[in-house]
Amino acid sequence: MPVADLQLNYRRDNDSSRTSYSLLGAQDFAYLSAEYFLAGREQDLLTDSRLTFSKQDVNNSLLGVFAASELEFGDITATQSRKPL
Asked: Of 9, 35, 42, 79, which is the most exposed, with the fewest CB atoms less than 10 Å away?
């Protein structure tokens, strides 16, 4: 079942105002799981976007002879490790 979260923001300071939005969602698409993120503001309707597709198999039967248990492609956010301060 598709899931989506839409956030709208309006801010007014003295003589100016700003609006922005973000949309985060996930759903199944063509036997894959799809996750998406869109964000923007009134002057720039699309400032950030991400789209990732993934598939998991507990039997390790993805990609034939490679016997993969997980396949993921798209705009993948890598894990970052930080050094202590």
From this structure: 79
Report the C-alpha gap between 32 and 74 in whole angstroms: 12
- Residue 43's pLDDT band (boundaries 50, 70, 90)? confident
Q: Rounded mean pLDDT of 35-47?
A: 90
Place of tokens 């922005």: 20
3-state secondary structure of 2: coil
pLDDT at res. 6? 94
Model pLDDT for residues 55-70, shown as the tens digit of each residue = 988 888 888 888 888 8
> Hey, what long-range contacts does 76-81 have (CB within 8 A, 24 or more apart)?
76/52, 77/50
d(Cα 52, Cα 26) in Å, to the nearest integer? 9
What is d(CA 78, CA 53) in angstroms, rounded to the nearest whole number?
14
